[in-house]
């Protein structure tokens, strides 16, 4: 990517080097690890809530069972109470029947006594064997009247008691039925709460399952990222080793290099792509890195060979160098920097790598690049 710099010079960004890729891979791995940790924390929180809901569900089921037992007891009490009322109704009917019979018999006797009037006493007098017998018969009649009244009163009292008992039982039955209805409503509410809690438990189970699946995926990603980091670390160490070997390798003198036609044009345009927006010293430094590689026995011994070596300079891979060459984008300062580098001038010693600064990379800082 190219942006405008002060003075109208183009500013270029360097492609990712192995160290930058390594650092980026570690950052991505840390992000993935953090995502996994967050998901694990969320899963643990979900599990705690689910366990709490399971405890509530168990308690609610116990309550529901107690309500069910209470309903069964009430239903049995209602059945028993209805049976008592039925028996009481039978007793009341019997009491009414006996009272009616007693009352009817008493009316007949009263009517008989009323119709006979004094004749009844005369009959008792004349039929009595003695005055004592007359008194006995008169007393019998009086006792009969007293018995009728007493029995009638007893039957009336018995009927009253049975009626009171029936009324009390009916009130008790009504209370039981009200309580039964209330308990049924309570059971309905408890059942709904059990259902809602069970649904919540199931929902949390699904969320936990999703979290576990996410954790598994993140663990796979972390494993792959660790493999990538290991590979990049190995590659970076190999590059550092190459850099050290290059410094320790046999170096030709600049006078031993024969530059081909077009080397200056090629190098100037590479400098433009890599450091067109850098200070002049930075442009010279990029050119010096290319020439250092030409001089080192660890790299190709020509400008063309060094610049087009596989995966070494990002503008080559991206096609930007080809565009610059096609349009001769190199500026006068880029050509001047190329001339100085090709003359053997270096401001970076024997450095053979450069990149934009990142944490952990040490080297010679010139402009926006680190040379090492």
Number of helices: 9
Q: How many domain units?
A: 2
What's the Cα radius of gyration? Answer: 58 Å
In CATH, the topology of the largest domain is named Helix Hairpins
Low-pLDDT residue intervals, each spanning 5 or more residues:
1-15
Output mean pLDDT. 83
The profile of the biggest β sheet is: 3 strands, antiparallel
Strands side by side in the biggest sheet: 3-5-4
CATH architecture of the largest domain: Orthogonal Bundle
What percentage of the residues does DSSP assign to strands (E)? under 5%
Fraction of helical residues: over 70%
State the order of secondary-structure elements, H for helix, E for strand: EEHHHHHHHHHEEE
Termini separation: 23 Å
Report the structural category. mainly alpha
The geometry reads as rod-shaped
What's the number of extended β-strand segments?
5
Question: Briefly, what CATH class of the largest domain?
Answer: Mainly Alpha
List the keywords.
single chain; 372 residues; mainly alpha; Helix Hairpins; Arc Repressor Mutant, subunit A; 2 domains; 3-stranded antiparallel β-sheet; two-stranded antiparallel ribbon; disordered N terminus
In short:
The chain is mainly alpha-helical and 372 residues long.
Polypeptide structure, described:
- With 372 residues, the chain is mostly helical.
- It folds into 2 domains: 38-223, Helix Hairpins (Orthogonal Bundle); 249-371, Arc Repressor Mutant, subunit A (Orthogonal Bundle), CATH 1.10.10.2520.
- Helix content is 77%, strand content 4%.
- The protein is built from 9 helices and 5 strands; from the N terminus they run E-E-H-H-H-H-H-H-H-H-H-E-E-E.
- Strand 1 (2-4) and strand 2 (10-12) form a beta hairpin.
- The longest helix is centred in the middle third of the chain and has 118 residues, at 131-248.
